[in-house]
Amino acid sequence: MISISVNGRNLQVEDDPQTPLLWVLRDSLDLTGTKYGCGIAQCGACTVLLDGVAVRSCSLPVGSLAGKNITTIEGLATEETLSKVQQAWVEEDVPQCGYCQSGQIMSATSLLTRNSNPSDAEIESAMSGNICRCGTYPRIKKAIKRASKA
Amino acid sequence: MNRRNFIRLSTTATGGLAIAMTVPGVAQAAVREESFVANVLCEIHADGSITFMLTKHEMGQGTGTGVPMIFCDELGGNWDTFKVVQALHDEKKYDRLQANTGGSSGVRLMWKPLREMAATTREVLIRSAAKHWGVAKTGLYTDNGFVMNPANNKKVSFGDLVSIAPTVETPALSEIKLKEHKDFRLIGTEVRNRLTPKIVRGEKYFALDLKLPNMVYASIERCPVYRGKVKSYDDTSARKVPGVIDVIKVPGIYEDADFIVRDGVAVIAGNTWAAMQGRKALAVEWEAGPNRNTSNASLEEKMQSLVEAPGEKVHDYYGNFGDVEKAISEADEVLTATYENPYHAHACMEPMNGVAEIKEGHIEVWSTMQNPNWASEQIAKYVNIPVEKQTIHILPAGGSFGRKFYPEHIVEVAWLSSKLDVPVKLTWTREDDIRCDYNSAFQHDNHRVALKDGQVTGWRTNVISTKSWSPEPWFPYIVPHKLGEKHIVDSPLSTGAWRSVGPHRAAFAMEGMMDEVAHKLGKDPLAFRLEMLDRQVELGADAEKHYSQPYSIDAIQKTKQVLNLVAEKSGWGKSMPRNSGQGIAVYRFAMSFCAHVVEVTFANGALRVDKVTAALYCGTAVNPHFVKGQVEGAIIWALTSALYGGMDFKNGAVQQSNFHDYKMLRMHETPEIDVHIVPSTDAALGVGEPGVPPLTPALMNAIFAATGKRIRKTPLDMAELL
Lengths: 150, 722
Fold this sequence. Notes:
heterodimer; A: alpha+beta; Ubiquitin-like (UB roll); DNA polymerase, domain 1; five-stranded mixed sheet; 5 helices; 35% helix; 14% strand; globular; B: alpha+beta; Aldehyde Oxidoreductase, domain 4; 3 domains; 17 helices; 30 strands
């Protein structure tokens, strides 16, 4: 049994401690908003926040996470209210297929938490670990700027 | 098509999917007593809301918003209460309304039938309102979910007409009138993606997110060489991995080059991670088969040997006329060049996956698929479950670009479910995805252009490709003598549809060669193209006939439109800084036309793509927000393959495996993109692919302008610029 905190809830999981957080979230906890894209921390589809900082959950053994606070895409909004990043994503209507967008939103959330008014170069640097195969980068950038002004 | 039923106590008559895609922010309609099923796609509820069955596959191209917009607008419906539900696969019920989703055909092929269906329903509602009010139908019209009577300013909700509608006569097609362009209320506006609010919350959406009771998880080790087989395997260690439940040999299917399932070994486990770990513990010996000695070098050598060889004539649509050999022999000079396209993988962000369950001989499948009829047919054939005992849920794709046209993931998971008594989810790894793709074809295009007295007199093209699908170049330019030939060679890697199919390969060569000829003749590349579209040259009877065909005239006109628009918007010919250059190219995909101007800078050993300006003709732009998004995406897609694409294969096996060695364009490498749409009231056309073909030639032409280096091979080898 491993105790982890996900979206403010303390949970016990029975997975092998070596299991990457990604698969614990998806298969054991049924939190499927976090996506599998590459398994080797190259694409960012699996991005979650660990104590507020963007990390790749595909490469993070669940056994190393005791006492840490994990936030997934499901933990950003309340029933009624989207986070300002999610809201900006809606207003710019960013997604095409949507598969990479959870990871993009988590990376953007992490960026804006530590830098509330990032420059173009800072946005590009923070988002360079997230691949979008549909090519929504121009709209992602617009949404991050919009969120930074919200 | 105009079947009408009066249904009581029914909101599920249309067979909605569990993961229903409803308009966000609008509560699910309560179960009402009455509804009016207007046709196979549309059910009108007593509360005035409408359920519309989406038969096409949403894969990010926006068809799940664009197609319903067409119907809703023609009907005069209320978009806010227009619920869109993904239809199950049902060939009998939907026929051509479902078929497949590909070739940028969704909006193009649905435009007319959908409008006719909606206009028929609109007329039924108008007749119903006339009966309801006891007035003549003349002058009544629909607007935002109501039938309006301008004579007395009365209106009645569609919902209040559901019990009358089945009692009025359905009009014949000849009695209905489609809306005029000026009367559209949704079409032409920037309606937002209906799915965005779900996506930003990470709600369940893809087949990969599905979890059924008692479900097990599968991962398959497949033969790395196309057409190879499992010789033997030892699963002793795999079975000892915690969580592993079973190991099953998967039989390959290689009967048809267009549909294969690779021979392999499946590991079944209690979760995805355990299945993947079990796979790593397998010891498999492969019989690599007929492709075991192939490589990029062996295929290049084979193609080079055919560059000069006479091939099979391409079809007449391309245009074969005059006497090219004579034009070449009489030329002052003949320009010859060969352009090389490698294999490319799709690398959709969502890897191939599916869920299947068999209960009492009936199979239920949840997956992503562009061609559900094909999936169904293959399940019947290889899993031996007839179509009438299949329920196939078409879930949105996390990107497809042609990849999910091929249903081998569905046959794999369906076959596995026939060996298990519980539901099973199959997940491909990224490595599986890169190594076992249906790649874009490997192709060499050789062009020979005869020049005499500063004019193009003959043009000969020889295409050598691993895929027979339209490898030949589309060619609007006026030339007196023209010949196209092709050679189709066996493919050592599985080959298939890839965003824009054949045209992106042919365009690179064709529009690269146009640039070469322009420079050779000392002409501006834009002016040269316009001149070649407007030539007053002597043509033989067969050439005259070709250029007087409606499609030739249309192609010339549309090509000029997009060239002129892109030139104006990009500031073509403006003075560029040192080491920078502009490149232009134009191409057609399906019935749409696109031109790009690319601007690059090469400095300090690095290439920067600064800006891409695009002009698109797509008939009526149903939703300009989506149209522009698709062109942006197409540009980024094509730029990725031009700069980073290409499979390296050796001993028949792809050498790359994941995003560290099969690179994708990222945000910091993405140029500024400026998309313009040619205003039009013509029938709506496809927009997902037309932005791809002209990008690579425009890029390489810009590199030539900046550096004087002519690049004829993708992916770009930076060493060529140094």
